[in-house]
Amino acid sequence: MITIETFRTLSLSYPNTTEELHFEKTSFRINKKIFATFDEKNNQAVLKLNEIDQSVFCASSEMSFYPIPNKWGKQGWTIVELSKVRPEMFEDALKLSYQNVASKKR
């Protein structure tokens, strides 16, 4: 299981990452853009993946990854069930989320 401490440590290990509140969630940002959020109440993360990565993780994850069920999901925003996800799979997805957002121009 991924804890907030693990989530925070991994997220803040990427260059220029900041941690900020986002409504009742904790968000992690690069260049003021969110690449991940942590919802402690529901023990879920939300990551910004591209469409291909989102489809790969959702297809191979045994219900630990799924798109947000609205327009945000169609833009790559993906829910991760932290009690179900394998740690190495989560680390890979988090890294891709960071790279996806970091590569966007300001």
Write structural notes for this entry.
This protein is of the alpha+beta class and 106 residues long. The chain is built from four helices and six strands. A hairpin with a 2-residue loop joins strand 1 and strand 2. The longest helix has 16 residues, at 87-102. The chain is globular and about 30 Å long. The mean pLDDT is 94.
Summary tags:
single chain, about 110 residues, alpha+beta, Aspartate Aminotransferase, domain 1, 6-stranded antiparallel sheet, 4 helices
Summarize the model shown:
This is PF04237 family protein. The protein has 106 residues and is an alpha+beta fold.
List the helices and strands and how they pair.
Blueprint: H1 4-12, E1 17-22, E2 25-30, E3 33-39, E4 44-48, H2 51-59, E5 65-67, H3 71-74, E6 77-81, H4 87-102
Give the percentage of residues in beta strands: 25-35%
Number of strands: 6
Q: Over the alpha carbons, how many angstroms does the gyration radius reach?
A: 12 Å
Q: What is the count of distinct domains? A: 1
CATH topology description: Aspartate Aminotransferase, domain 1
Summing up helix and strand content along with how strands pair, one would put the structural category as: alpha+beta
| SSE pattern | HEEEEHEHEH
Residues in helix, %: 25-40%
CATH class: Alpha Beta
